[in-house]
Amino acid sequence: MIQGSWHHFNPVRVEFGVGCLERLADSDIVGSGQVLLVTTAGFVRRGQAAKVCEILGASRTSVFDDVTPNPEIDDLDCAMRVLRDCIPTVIVALGGGSVIDAAKAMAVGFKVDAGEAPFAAMLRHDHERPEHAVPVIAVPTTAGTGSEVTPFATVWDRQEHRKHSIAGNHVYPAAAIVDPTLTLSLPSEETLHTALDAISHSLESLWNRNRTPLSEGFSVRALREAISALPAVLTNPGDLAARSAMQRASLFAGMAISQTRTAIAHSISYPLTTHYGVPHGLACSFTLPRIISEHLERDGEPPEIENLMERARVLLVSLRLDERLRSFASQAQVEALEGEMAQPGRADNYVGSVEGLDRFVRPVSDAKDGSA
Predict the structure, then answer these.
(1) Among 134, 152, 178, which residue terminates a domain?
(2) Residue 161: which of 340, 26, 314 has the closest Cα?
(3) Same domain, 216 and 150
């Protein structure tokens, strides 16, 4: 399934390890100019933002803390109107995937000459997109999205029920500071949902037309780490070794999809999030047990990878994801969105058929996959 010719490019400088946040200011990327810290009100309230400002230098650091889950076009345009007069030399993103995506989008937005609504201009009206951006240093506080090492920023449009992607080599963060201690206080549901995203990334990079030897290596390592670490962190949230393993899984899976992009499970997920607010990690993972079964029956895998996929399927079934999904949308509501689930640029990465996607969203009835 790996193409005869392939390429690999990832320019993100990664600093990983317990306590590495303290070395944030040592990066030559920070320089001596003005810094914009993009985060959430929660990180300000709990003091983490103040700590980052202290490390960077409070006098030169401005804070934007109005990021909400699933950054939205109109909200980002409001942020740009607030910040337009204080263009930073570097942006530091402290938070989960939504914060990092917002920061990467804003880094591009600062370079758009489109009045007070650069994101509406780019994403709704096809305004020319710049090919450069303000440098971003990503400091992830969740283990799942891998956004700290990918060239994509996901932006949502509630008005039109759509998901957009700002993509390109200029969207890669310049650096990632990955400190597992920042995930220790992550609530159980958010721990689960973000971890499910990492598992989805690792699997989708494997059943992917763009799979390469390097993406496969990252995916396999990510899946192995996540399968072992997720039950441990759900049982004991203070297990720093398991938290570190989940951070590695997220990072490696992000490295994989930075080359392949995601595939069918993410394609199916987007309308569920835009219409019903299903958390991204849940929306892109509830289909995985059925996709794993189909993939292994159709294409097979080397024994090591087949074993990992089967272990992942068993773990995912045990988490009863279909039941969790029902708290957001009924089965009828999910199936009614089938016409929106084959998203270009994602569904066509899948090595299998994209016809009849309802086979992946129907309640599990095969005993092999668990019981509905």
Answers:
(1) 178
(2) 340
(3) no
Region of residue 216 (phi > 0: left; psi between -120 and 50: alpha; otherwise: beta): alpha
For 64-107, what is each residue's pLDDT tens digit?
999 988 899 999 999 988 888 788 999 999 999 999 999 999 99
For 236-259, give the DSSP string: -TT-HHHHHHHHHHHHHHHHHHHH
* CA-based nearest residue to 156, from 257, 40, 64, 76: 76
In a domain, 8, yes or no: no
In a domain, 225, yes or no: yes
Q: What is the pLDDT of residues 223-237, one digit of tens each?
A: 999 999 999 999 999
Looking at 158, 178, 198, the residue that finishes a domain is: 178
* Cα Rg of the chain, angstroms: 20
Structural domain of 65: 20-178
Could you tell me which residues are beta bridge partners of residue 92? Answer: 37, 137
Compute the Cα dihedral for 221, 21, 152, 102 and give only its sign.
positive
**Is 12 within the bounds of a domain?**
no
Question: 133 and 171 in contact (C-beta within 8 Å)?
Answer: yes
Residues 213 and 317 occupy one common structural domain: yes
Query: Per residue in 182-206, pLDDT tens?
Result: 999 999 999 999 999 999 999 999 9
Q: How many angstroms separate the CA atoms of 361 and 372, rounded?
A: 12
Strands 162-167 and 152-157: antiparallel
Burial 165-177 (b: 16+ CB within 10 A, else e): bbbbebbbbbbbb
In degrees and rounded to multiples of 5, residue 278 shows phi and psi of: -65, 125
